[in-house]
TrEMBL record:
Keywords in alphabetical order: Membrane, Transmembrane, Transmembrane helix
Transmembrane segments: 12-33, 53-71, 83-103
Domain of life: Bacteria
Natural source organism: Mesorhizobium zhangyense
Entry protein name: Uncharacterized protein
High-level lineage: Bacteria, Pseudomonadati, Pseudomonadota, Alphaproteobacteria, Hyphomicrobiales
Length: 117
């Protein structure tokens, strides 16, 4: 087998990896929802549900797209893989920013006496 030929199993794994990244886009979008819906709508109320869903989806999205950035970033000399790695990194940055905002919102909720259990 020459250097140019590709192993069929590699193609299948590559396809499954890219498919997983595409299928995980709704998870990433859920991770980008606001931590406090009332503040997102312009109010100043306390969201009693808290940012738990944001923690879950943003954390899951960070793991999935962080792995995608790592796996594709190892082959950065190939243009397509570089684009995929950069897209994964951008999604990770957006999820990270929203996760930090959710952590701040959780701390604000913990400081409100009405939120105590």
């Amino acid at each position: 087998m020459t250097e140019i030929e590709h192993h069929p199993q590699r193609r299948i794994w590559a396809f499954l990896g890219y498919a997983a990244l595409v299928i995980a886009l709704p998870v990433a979008l859920m991770g980008l929802m606001p931590a406090n819906e009332y503040k997102a709508w312009g109010g100043d109320g306390i969201d009693c549900d808290g940012p738990g869903l944001v923690f879950f989806f943003a954390g899951l999205g960070l793991v999935l797209y962080g792995a995608g950035a790592f796996v594709n970033g190892r082959h950065f000399r190939k243009p397509f893989k570089l684009v995929v790695a950069c897209a994964c990194l951008l999604i990770c940055v957006a999820l990270g920013v929203n996760l930090v905002a959710a952590i701040k919102e959780q701390r604000l909720n913990d400081a409100v006496p009405e939120m105590g259990s």
